[in-house]
Design goal:
mainly alpha; about 70% helix
C-alpha cells in the first residue's frame, strides 16, 4: 500500500512542479510521477544535509515540490534544443 501512496503523491507533486515551472514540458504520467518521487528524494537529501530533517523523517509537500522544481530545472538545462 505504501508504494501506491508514493506513486500518487509523486504524481501530484510532479504535476504541481510542472505547473509552477515556466515553459512546456512534454512528459507523460510515468515521467511526471518519477519527477515527483525524485524531487522528494532530492528535498530529503538537501534537508538532511542542511539539518532541517532528521534521519528517517518524511519530507513535506512544499519541500517535495521545490525538489521537483530543482530536478525539472536541471533536466530542462540538458534537454534544451539548440537553434
Amino acid at each position: 500500500m505504501d508504494i501506491i501512496i508514493m506513486i500518487i503523491v509523486g504524481f501530484i507533486v510532479g504535476l504541481i512542479a510542472r505547473a509552477i515551472m515556466p515553459g512546456t514540458q512534454s512528459m507523460g504520467f510515468i515521467l511526471t510521477t518519477v519527477l515527483g518521487v525524485v524531487g522528494a528524494v532530492v528535498a530529503g537529501f538537501l534537508g538532511r544535509t542542511l539539518g532541517w530533517y532528521g534521519s528517517g523523517e518524511p519530507v513535506g509537500w512544499i519541500a517535495s515540490v521545490v525538489g521537483a522544481i530543482i530536478v525539472l530545472f536541471i533536466v530542462s538545462m540538458f534537454t534544451k534544443k539548440r537553434a
